[in-house]
Amino acid sequence: MATTVEAPGTSPIGRSTPRVDGPLKVSGAAKYASDFHFPGMLYAVPVGATIANGRVVKIDAAAAEKMPGVRKIFHRENIGKISRSVLGPGFEGICDERRPPFEDDVVRYYGQYIALAVADTFESAKAAADAVRVSYDKEKPNVSTDLKADDEPQVVVTTFGPANRVRSERGDAAGAFASAPVKLDQTYVTPAETHNPIELHATTAIWDGSTLTLYESSQGVFNLQGVLAQMFGLPKENVRVITKFLGSGFGGKLWPWTHCPLAAAAARQLGKPVKLVVSRKMMFQTVGHRPRTQQRVRLGAAADGKLISLQQDYVNDKAILDHYHEDCGEATAFQYSVPNLRVAFGRAKRNIGSPTAMRGPGAVPGLYATESALNELADQLKIDPVQIRVLNEPKIDESLGIPFSSRHLLECFSVGAEKFGWSKRTAEVGSMKRDGLTLGWGMAGCTWVAARFPAAASVQLRDDGTARVACGTQDIGTGTYTVLAQLTAQRAGVPLDKIEVVLGDTSLPAGPISGGSMVTGSVIPAVFAAADNAIASLLNIAVTTPGSAFEKRKPDELAFEGGRVFAKVDGVAKGVPFADLLGRANLRLVTGGGEGAATFGNPKPKFSTQSFGCHFVEVTWQAEIARLRVSRVVTVIDAGRILNPLAGRNQVEGAVVMGIGMALFEHTTYDPQNGAPINSNLADYVMAVNADVPPIEVHFLDYPDKEINELGARGIGEIGLAGIAAAITAAVHHATGVRVRELPVKIEDLI
Amino acid sequence: MRDDPPSSPSRREFLQTTAGTAAAAAIAGSVGGPVVATAGAGVTTADGPRIEGAVPITLRINGKDRKLRVDPRTTLLDCIRETVDLTGTKKGCDHGQCGACTVHVNGRRVNSCLSFAVMHEGEEITTIEGIGGPDSLHPMQAAFVACDGYQCGYCTSGQIMSAVALLKEPCGADDAAVKELMSGNICRCGAYLNIVSAIQQVRRKA
After folding, report:
1. Is A216 a catalytic residue?
2. Which alpha helices (H) appear in A501-554, and where do they start and end?
3. I need a labelling partner for A200 at 20 to 30 A (CA). Which of A423, A549, A586, B180 fits?
4. Cβ contact (<8 Å) for B89 and A657?
5. Domain boundary among A553, A574, A596
6. A468–B94 C-beta distance less than 8 A
């Protein structure tokens, strides 16, 4: 399966590389947003509304203000101006909750911030926040889980990836469904899920009169800079956002949330650094979640399993003021071949905080529905679920009418089936047993978009033989620090341990958001160009420096390899290390800048660029005690070239772990009486723990995709969560005979 | 929060005397190259906030006595992070549900968010900084690096504190036993299999 073009040899690319930031992470020395402390720093604790719909009548802060150590209780009367922000071109000004905090007295969701206590210590601030008395005009909230679109459903016209993936409607989907020999019409539901990165959202804000510095848990420091500059009427260059280490985010930290301008406004008013750490409970209320989706899927097929018609009509819930669309139809229009197709969506307003992107937004709930429907159709036709997918493999991307740059989904299926032992599967429900347990085997396919965001980077070569690479992107935990070191090592010939990597700061060259699984693919051209430009400067220095071994030569007679400059006619063996050249020229360093252009949003792509994969899952079912366990997973991923297999496998394993949670545990429940997320803690919002995780085998096909970048690397952060829930529910059906169409699978569904 | 540090510079002094401004000192962080000194050595001093009803206590953290005046409401976790400025120990839930704040008290692992600092007078407290630094890793820390037993790194201090404590606990030899004993530490990134590999690697060598 693996076809690696570049010879591995000494190249750091494609080699399992322990993380360069590992020693900092394992010793507690890596600094996250809430780890930065400053003289005179104050602590802020927000007060959240205890209603989900209505108005604030009165905020009585008198008692709170008199408490020891309290500096100020802020509310809409005294916080000062916090303006709105607007969306700009590209990735500018993005914000899922557009209304600035404290803008009016209307409460639209439970936990919406209505006041902010600031004190000398966290304990004093917390006590003061608890002592603020609020009276409300309360109305009944609408948090109903039965979703009907508020407006006429629309055909999906724009999805994530290429601009205007317009062909989410083709042929005559309704007519072809009506006349299809075999039909399936089912509705699938995914619940609200909360990201719950273990790092709490946090802001430490420092306002020194004209400049605002924010230590923030952000997946996109540049977007945050732009939004905050707008909110406070500052030139963008007067706002600096720093995210040195990010305790993950899974999409929840992509765009700014309301705590961040609150901390900044408090720092502005009080003239001191202010630290605000969002509590775990508040993280269920105010920093986004994956919305609930309800998806009706109708499949029409021939008797042999060939798809004739596919319709997907879905609704997601959204906040009162905002318009988040969970793009469940993202992959529907191209994953399989079908001549008649219609994907339409609607949204239903609820008294909830704004939803936001969560790992694999759109595709993850969407593929749960469509892959589940395909599994059901296969069972209905008594066709192997792998076979029905092979039968419907498209030759091109039928939504765009263009070829895929690199699609090896069929090989994913064959490799996965072989590694899993799929041929031993007997189709009858409950027919497979081991050690007194009933086994269930299920599978599903997956896909995730691949594209590049714009990226810039700089590379320095220094006179001590070290290099520095800088890019204002973030390492969300995927291994970005290490990838940048690998890329610089590859291009500049500097050993990994002599490369300093600097990320997470708006004072650096603009880097991409940590989102869409696109950082690695995006930074490759930028870092390579930066290294090439640094090397070009070095060659110029080599020919112009008096006494240099290359003084009489022209730059184009020289080459650079393995950290050495050499004359092409003499070969690298007679080369001079760059540190020596810099030393002779009395230069501390040379710097090169580089940029990579975006492919994301390309209106006329020549190729459809996607990653693909599949999951094979075994569950064990012990009917006597209603015990269901995922016992084995084999996942095969076709994501182009894998730059660091050690971190890459970890990404996919982690996604499968989250998929086990999605299929079996995770759901945020809103109390219909008061609209509060009632399981707003990590004991009641159940996520997979160590003991829940079975052996997971991950295989990468490793076909470079040169349409994406010169190394052929697509992203891998999200694809592993796509499709896994459909594979698990198929395995549950195979073991128990119960078809669960609303996640998560609950024990009461099975008994 | 007051303190009379015997010799170490205070957090504020440290920040004020390092690299010009506090901000410059704190954000110099990068990966690779020289390890950037972190302001973990000191404690807050007399110019810290006055706390009404503060209680004088001495906490022995990582082998060093620290004379502190703390709010009786201060949890051990917040005391370690905010008063003593050892920020390697993390807050993930403040409810004893995630394990990110795990430290050792008298050699046993505890969730430091679940008890008050004033309850630990005279006890031997060990945080991740006391296990090993970036240049002097404990075998468990080195194994986590080698096995990629993390992703974002935020829960990692707690995972390693649990893992080091586990070495002295009655734990079966197989992976399943380790997984059971490590299930109080949530890793949302899902690096569980690599965490188990790291622990087993250390146990096999022990």
Report:
1. no
2. 519-544
3. B180
4. no
5. A596
6. no
